[in-house]
## 1
Amino acid sequence: MRAIGRDPLFIERGEGPWIHDVDGNRYVDYVCSWGPLIAGHAHPSVIAEILGAAARGTSFGAPTEGEVELAAEVVERVPSAEMVRMTSSGTEASMSAIRLARAATGRDPILKFAGAYHGHVDGLLAEAGSGLATQGIPSSPGVTKAQAADTIIVPWNDREAVEQALEERPPAAILCEPFPANMGLVPPAQGFLEFLREAADAAGALLIFDEVITGFRVSRGGAQERSGVTPDLTILGKVIGGGLPAAAYAGPRTFMEMVAPAGDVYQAGTLSGNPLAVAAGLATLHLLDDAAYLHLEQTTRALAQGLSSAAIEAGVPAKITWAPGLLTLFFTPSEIDDLAAVRGCDMNAHAAFCRAMLEHGIYLPPSQYEAWFPSLAHGPEQLDQTLEAAARSFAEMSG
Ligand SMILES: *Cc1c(COP(=O)(O)O)cnc(C)c1O
């Protein structure tokens, strides 16, 4: 909220597309816990499953049927997933997937993209997106030189930079968000994911898709299903926990069987796959059928088109990127294809817009480096209210 010159809202409760703050204001929520709440707040069937699970015991440190059901659901949906390992956060899942890639290749370096965020894994905090980008933190203190030295950073959508980096120092993995959404949504250029697949193969590196945001959101099987490009390992989080702490990494049996106890790559977690989080995740995935994805796509398209028209009408230079369930409104006349382009946006205009939208009852991610998260609970009423508020906010800014 500092990025838009406001104090944070303190939230009292949420229901469907709405949040209520402690001061008695109600907002249409486009943050939705930064992604997990694809079904909206306090969805009755998700809450019922959590309550039912809680009554049977919160954690056992032993397998449950729910974990197996959730893993089966992931395997059925996600093309690269043959075996699944649960963790409690996306950060842990990234950390573990990287460890596995290093073990599988015998190499240390990881190639990542400027503006991508993979959780607060020490070695990946350089040029990271999300909160670090918002707060202008180029790399976090507390990360050792050795950890930082194994991270290679290249600009997103830059084929030459990727080729050169791979040649100079063949990495264990190319790690990317297939539709990066932690510098705002910056989709891959035509053919870029296919290029990464081929480049990884040629360099003997694994391709890891961090689908913590895109998984179960941009389509049933995430960005890999949507793009047709299958990575070696996949990192999942957010939606898979339905608002409770759950995440996972997944891949083909050959890699996943390297993880202990089947293999000797160690990873563990006291609360990994705990029954509450698994129940919330499963209940959420059960809501995500073809009709749900159609709804999400239609809602996001209507939002993108409406916002675009409203910006043009008001003479505000803007670029909108979107994928089903994800959208960013960039305050710039330029094309957005990498972190440098996002940094060139008019941050004051973005801040003024967010403040105005709050006044009109719409809670947006208060950073140009984040995406909006419309949910299944966002319907025509919220769309109308949002577009009306946007038209007024644009007019107030330009006037
Ligand atoms: C949120 C996020 C993470 C980290 O997940 P946590 O559960 O917050 O640790 C990793 N990767 C991406 C792409 C994310 O958006």
## 2
Amino acid sequence: MRYVSTRALAHAEATPIAVGLSDALNAGLAPDGGLYVPQSLPHFAPQDFAGATTLPAIAKILLQPFFAGDALESELAAICDQAFTFAAPLKRLPLAQTYALELFHGPTAAFKDFGARFLAACLQRIQRDDARVLTILVATSGDTGSAVAAAFHNVPGIRVVILYPDGLVSPRQAHQLGCFGDNISALRVAGTFDDCQRMVKQAFTDTTLRELLPLSSANSISLGRLLPQMSYYAWAALSHWREHNSPLNFVVPTGNLGNAMAALLARAIGLPLGEIVLATNANRTLPDFFDNGEYRARPSIATIANAMDVGDPSNYERLRWLFPDTNSLQKTLRAIAVDDATIRTTIAAGEKRYGEIWCPHTAVATHVLEQLRAENTQGDWAIVATAHPAKFDTVVEPLIGHAVAVPPALAALLARPAHAEPMHAEYAQLREWLLQRRDPHADAPTD
Ligand SMILES: *Cc1c(COP(=O)(O)O)cnc(C)c1O
């Protein structure tokens, strides 16, 4: 399989430059600023997965065509076994025809662990000509940074630099970002997630910097995150198919469209997913686009579902690659926005109604499903549960009136000391910092 840039395709270039998987993973973003997408799509039927019942077993079959012809092809099985060491349970809820796909059983308690661990397992195995340390630059609205930090912590030859909006992530998210040390640096930026994302993008287009410093990305634009995220949708949809012989529908909490793109891609290559509905917080870029067909990027708004505070979803170009025609896209997909007040009431009602404590992001999806049911939508639906509620204790606990038990992996991270360096929302300062701190071991914080 070869990969091409969404922008080359958008400009209908006769022969777009195609690269192999390893090159696409190393680069993160395509040189023209577009996102890498597969040059062609494989096609699967449920029978192709006969005998495969675990997440890694399904992932090995599903991802094989995407690795075909690349140096990593022979490593795919080992990569899946290394990355997918925790389950993604499809839990039946006490309401009829309703499930939760729990994606928060990894080391940092959010779905980002699947993609980050898979990407790390890939990058670790790619032979690079460059002997210098590879810098992985990540902007995070909360959960990506810690998942990437956990996945790359102490991986030789790689350092991770995380930018997050100071004060706009939950206290436990902030702690997780700063608690690794060693080859991981956390920068708390006096700005929004959009500022962090802009600074990272600027670094990627800074050719002089990139000559001085090998850079790679681990944001949701990376193929190394997008591709493996298909695995849990494939797993859940196949489990449901085997039991009921019908497709499973999903409501996906959505910010940068990484998780939802994986669901759409899994369906496009033949997995038995039914409808996919996007659930957003008060950041209405996608709901407005589906309403009026006009995509208008805007500044993000801070909400209590902070990992979805995105005003210009970075995977939007991939969405348009998969659905170039606006009219048919509007017919295929819906996005529904949920405000903070509704998120709060959904969390408060969650224990009684579902026997579940929802994180604010999962509550967004739960409310969207309730809205769909009120419109008399039929069929089996899964709420995609993207994070553990204990990550958002300051929001969740006052609403449910008691403490949320902390999963052991999260507790272990919270017990470590944490440190983050302040930074202005200015690219020049980031650039300077990156160049001065080329050796992560030279003056790493020691507290
Ligand atoms: C990142 C994140 C989301 C949004 O996922 P995207 O891939 O950016 O759309 C939703 N919920 C949680 C808990 C997250 O960490």
## 3
Amino acid sequence: MLWGGKSQAVAVTVTALLLNRGQACLHEHQFHRATVKRQDTPPTALTPDERIIVESISNTSISEWSYYYTHGYHIAGTNRTMAQWTADRWSENGWNSSLVAYDVFLNYPVSKSLSLTYANGSQFQPSLKEAILAEDDTTSYPNRVPTFHGYSATGNASAEFVYIGRGQQVDFDRLVQLGVPLEGKIALARYGGPFRGLKVKNAQEHGMVGVVIFTDTADDGDVTEANGYAPYPEGPARNPSAVQRGSVQFLSTYPGDPTTPGYPSKEDSTRTNPDSVLPRIPSIPISYVDAIPLLAALDGHGTDGAQVNRTNWVGALNVTYSTGPAPGTTISLSNLMNETYTPIWNTIGIINGTNADETIVIGNHRDAWIVGGAADPNSGSAIVVEMAKAFGKLLAQGWKPARNIVLGSWDGEEYGLLGSTEWVEEYIPWLNGTAVSYLNIDVGASGAFPFIDATPELHAIATETMKKVLWMDTNRNMYDVWYEYAGGNFGVLGSGSDYTAFVHNGIGSIDMSANPGEGDPIYHYHSNFDSYHWMSTYGDPGFLAHKYMAQYLSLLAYNLATPARIQFDVPNWATQMDSYYDDLIAIISSTSKTLNTTALRRALDEFALRAQEVQALDDQAVATNDPALTTLVNHKYRDFQRAFVSQGGLPNREFYKNLIFAPGLDTGYAPTTFPGITEAFNDGNLTLAAEFVQKTANAILAAANIIKT
Ligand SMILES: *[C@@H]1O[C@H](CO)[C@@H](O)[C@H](O)[C@H]1NC(C)=O
Ligand SMILES: *[C@@H]1O[C@H](CO)[C@@H](O)[C@H](O)[C@H]1NC(C)=O
Ligand SMILES: *[C@@H]1O[C@H](CO)[C@@H](O)[C@H](O)[C@H]1NC(C)=O
Ligand SMILES: *[C@@H]1O[C@H](CO)[C@@H](O)[C@H](O)[C@H]1NC(C)=O
Ligand SMILES: *[C@@H]1O[C@H](CO)[C@@H](O)[C@H](O)[C@H]1NC(C)=O
Ligand SMILES: *[C@@H]1O[C@H](CO)[C@@H](O)[C@H](O)[C@H]1NC(C)=O
Ligand SMILES: *[C@@H]1O[C@H](CO)[C@@H](O)[C@H](O)[C@H]1NC(C)=O
Ligand SMILES: *[C@@H]1O[C@H](CO)[C@@H](O)[C@H](O)[C@H]1NC(C)=O
Ligand SMILES: *[C@@H]1O[C@H](CO)[C@@H](O)[C@H](O)[C@H]1NC(C)=O
Ligand SMILES: *[C@@H]1O[C@H](CO)[C@@H](O)[C@H](O)[C@H]1NC(C)=O
Ligand SMILES: *[C@@H]1O[C@H](CO)[C@@H](O)[C@H](O)[C@H]1NC(C)=O
Ligand SMILES: *[C@@H]1O[C@H](CO)[C@@H](O)[C@H](O)[C@H]1NC(C)=O
């Protein structure tokens, strides 16, 4: 994923968690294990086909696929062999598989440097390198990937520096209020919260000239060296040299190849200037040990961290998290990147269904920031190969699904969801006409606690499928474990993984993962230590979370693709949108401003009515076993979310078109509901907010019209 990692901040409630959490790859997770006590539910009995799937899935073969994916350089656009290997594994299990290439703009690291110079002239030189560990083979590969930021700007900067917390707009507002000078300074930012590219964007917009982003052990909960846990590889705590790589694209404005907005990147495609969605100031990621001297140099200068009084400002390192600047104490940094246009390769596998006009798409990205990538993303890649194998067993017995199944192994996700976005941009006419659902698995396993984000029509089938999976070689089913961990809540899709292009073209989606719980070993997100050795020793020993997530994804895909009837729960859209409406009203009421939301309320009521009607028609189709009626209902189910797509997109971000939810403009990962309305209102543009009340209401009425019977 474009984000990752986790924060086990102990005082977070489940609700707060669902709002703040990051997801798969482009972003960082914050997970908290709820302690909801309830009776376990008995597992659901399996059909013969489902039994074939479950029995086909083996942790031993998954561990072999994992080993393959985690022992070769496979940063975006560099490993065609791995794409072909993936196609070969799918083909030998009966899928029609091929590679689909795009020609994208990327940059790769060449060299960088960073030094701290105290006022007295003495210097500190951070290492900027991750440790080589004898136990962990891929940490010493000669072609291991250096620490860097994808899409970072080439440049040099030398200046006094300021600590900016997590670098959200509110952090900058506080710094401005405190009178801390920003113009011409270098920013020292903490990872966590907003997508890293937005930290750089905000710093750039405040006239800062460079950014250094560090990992803070506050994000590791109790599992720290300071608390007596040994660091990896001896123990579960974070290896002190670990560095989080990652993209600094301005994700909440535009994902995909920044030189081809809205259309696929082919060799001869027209290119536009990407400057508005990529940083112009250089940035460098560092470890927490490298950060300590930098932060310590600010102690006693500017405003002390406690007095800054911002959430997540003070971390767990032994410093005061003062703002600085410290007069005469400077950072010098240089960052040299090699910009290029290069092919990336998606692997696409197809099983045609009997209904040519209904399609289920399943996807996982393959590219990683490191040679390993055992969790991000190749736990998902290994799971998908195992799923392809299970479906091969069914194909061999003559099974043919009602719907087409398309399997995507995306390249270039880490730089900004490139492979999936370009593919959707190329195939949108066909997808718009046939896509029923998109199923995403990015970090399939970095621990053993399931977590799911999904559009509302999928909540019921996602829940029922969890009851079919016995979890982690125990007698408990996945549903009960999920209920305890996630509080029985599905998250709302923001961004940070490959479902984004689907959701913003009106295709309902689900994103699933299994994550560490409180007290579990620290997952080294986007670091060399996200390796096969870490996974098999700490993350998922025995590959059981992989195995059960593979069962889950396969059973879900099977049940969405096989039966004549599409198993959607559309009335749940009315329920969920009511809660988004309540959230909007709460936001409005907490201010002195007013906004007339009557049109939205009326549209929601109309939608709720039509949702009941289509549900009744669905029940009738089941009762009468009438194929024509089933097709009619199926097509309404397939199409209604297309109406949520706003043609001009959301304010100032054309790409993001879904009027019901989108990543927050200043979070990048975490979702905002009714985003056009909410963000215009929060910005104080009540004219624009009113415009989006009308647009959103019209979209909901158009959706209601599609499901109308
Ligand atoms: C591609 O990945 C495979 C599998 O991990 C690896 O064996 C191979 O060396 C990689 N290719 C390159 C060019 O690094
Ligand atoms: C220079 O200042 C730093 C920070 O105050 C201090 O740690 C270091 O010992 C000083 N070096 C010399 C040579 O005085
Ligand atoms: C910190 O801010 C909160 C409100 O945001 C305020 O209630 C509290 O008094 C502040 N604390 C300090 C030490 O300024
Ligand atoms: C924290 O830093 C202070 C001042 O630099 C030092 O005196 C103290 O020993 C440090 N504490 C720990 C636990 O390292
Ligand atoms: C930037 O810094 C690097 C490393 O210190 C140096 O080699 C290079 O010449 C500098 N470039 C410019 C334009 O100053
Ligand atoms: C930049 O990449 C190109 C290939 O795209 C390569 O030929 C060239 O040597 C690279 N330059 C540097 C400085 O790494
Ligand atoms: C793959 O394509 C061949 C013909 O090109 C077709 O006969 C076969 O049914 C296809 N397989 C699947 C799983 O769709
Ligand atoms: C599978 O379906 C696609 C799209 O309808 C069609 O173009 C293709 O010819 C089909 N392939 C086979 C083997 O039926
Ligand atoms: C998608 O299909 C809808 C009709 O269902 C149509 O109104 C819309 O223009 C199509 N969008 C695209 C991008 O093809
Ligand atoms: C697979 O799981 C079994 C327990 O069910 C375990 O004994 C075995 O070691 C696991 N295999 C691998 C390769 O981890
Ligand atoms: C609020 O909007 C509704 C629907 O557009 C409209 O009928 C009503 O007159 C508006 N109320 C006010 C006070 O403007
Ligand atoms: C508010 O939004 C409208 C578009 O509806 C735009 O014309 C106007 O410039 C915006 N006002 C401000 C202050 O940004």
